Amino acid sequence: MSAAKETGVSLKGIEISISGAMPLSASVVDSWETQTGGYLVEGYGLSETSPVLMANPVGPSRPAGTVGLPLPNTEVRVVDPERPTVDRSPGDDGELIVRGPQVFSGYWKKPDETAAVFVPAADGDDAGPWFRTGDIVRIDADGFVSIVDRIKELIITGGFNVAPSEVEDALRAHPDVVEVAVVGVPSAHSGEDVVAAVVLAPGKELNEKAIRDYARTCLAAYKVPRRIVAVEELPKSLIGKVLRREVRDRLLAGDRP
User: Fold this and answer.
1) Are 194 and 225 in contact (CB under 8 A)?
2) What's this model's pTM, rounded to 2 decimal places?
3) Residues 6 or more apart whose Cβ sits within 8 Å of residue 97
4) What is the pLDDT of residues 19-39, one digit of tens each?
5) Which of 55, 53, 66 is closest to 26 using CA atoms?
């Protein structure tokens, strides 16, 4: 979008765009739809689900920032990650488990890995087992699903779980911050510290206190980063997804991401 704007190329006429691989922020959706006059909708799935589980309807009724509704014949549940047979209360965060015709039957010649990602169906339920996605989600009253974070990327600080994406969304709204990656690094006192690596807007210098003060206006105190590091760029995959694990590894090695 920024390249098109800088070069004066119009994006008008793009009616429908579909996004996957990582959650979209509402600000990106708003900017894209303003420039194109069309819709930008999200979908969600995994390689193990062939690969789509849900998608947003194309229209103004869809809530931006969600990955939509389950596809036909796809069942979803939100469960306790520690006890995946126990459902979470409606509206609460939990691990998404699914089943449907697109869900795979298992990993080739890996019975242990296969058993680890399936939850047996309850007695009397003949529809088959549930696949554990490893993603923490929230489902609203209308059935729209929002991705909170990957279980493996949740930060545990002082006994509390912190979703990196929530902190990233808060920091990204600061006018000095262009991009951000939030990770947990080991702490002798609280399990892990919340640390943010940020790419600053051109001409801006890092003011940790100002950014933390801003974060406190929209985050609980334990979610506010203990440390903020300015970097020139963030490591990304070929599809542009920020590699949090690599950011964390570089921080632990004492390098700037």
Assistant:
1) yes
2) 0.79
3) 76, 77, 78, 79, 84, 119, 130, 131, 132, 133
4) 887 777 777 888 889 999 999
5) 66
